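Amino acid chain:
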Amino acid sequence: EQSQAHAYSCENETNFTTCQKEPNYFDSVKEELFNLRFQHTVNQLDNPMRMKAVKRDIARVKTFIRKQES
């Protein structure tokens, strides 16, 4: 089963703020990373660079959350 990419990515600041409005975005990205890792393990991953992009999205979300806390 192919992993589903999000309707938009968090590559730039405007899209990132849009991402924050989506409820449970962080959970969905973490779940996507889990699925990608599983596909990679069983050699069914079509686009290994997607894992890198998802990891960066997670880092952006965590950074945004930390900024909001302080």
User: Anything to note?
Assistant: The CA atoms of residues 24 and 31 lie 11 Å apart.
